[in-house]
């Protein structure tokens, strides 16, 4: 099967990958690139577990063909803490806020929740009122029902 070269900036590093034309970004991240922090829940755009940043915007990686990302910047949960920080060991402020607020139970939805929350908080046009946060996070489901603590963490996080 013919493959296509795709050039990405992945977690701040330029990479070139060879993918099949119909490869889904989520599968490429997890299976080809070993970035298993991005989770597969529903695999059809319903749960938000696969949320990554594409040029700074939160998207569902299960709905995106890898070839559609040519030339774009992708950030996954693995790259979040290193963005803009000289030392790579510190957590991103939103990761820290999730820890401080126990904003998870099983943790499966957490990477997607955190990626959506960071995109929301980085959008300076968005007011931090609870209604806005709820609306912005409505695509990220938590089957454990940790929503109260997730919302508290997002409201408390300071970028
Ligand atoms: Fe992509 Fe559920 S796995 S939205």
TrEMBL record:
GO molecular function: 2 iron, 2 sulfur cluster binding; metal ion binding; oxidoreductase activity, acting on the aldehyde or oxo group of donors
Sorted UniProt keywords: 2Fe-2S, Iron, Iron-sulfur, Metal-binding, Oxidoreductase
Alphabetized InterPro entries for the sequence: 2Fe-2S-bd, 2Fe-2S-bd_dom_sf, 2Fe-2S_ferredoxin-like_sf, 2Fe-2S_ferredoxin-type, 2Fe2S_fd_BS, Aldehyde_Oxdr_Iron-Sulfur, Beta-grasp_dom_sf
Domain 2Fe-2S ferredoxin-type: 4-80
Pfam families given in the database record: Fer2, Fer2_2
SUPFAM superfamilies (UniProt xref): 2Fe-2S ferredoxin-like, CO dehydrogenase ISP C-domain like
PROSITE patterns: 2FE2S_FER_1 (PS00197), 2FE2S_FER_2 (PS51085)
Entry-linked PANTHER family: OXIDOREDUCTASE WITH IRON-SULFUR SUBUNIT, OXIDOREDUCTASE, IRON-SULPHUR BINDING SUBUNIT-RELATED-RELATED
Name of the protein described by the UniProt record: Xanthine dehydrogenase YagT iron-sulfur-binding subunit
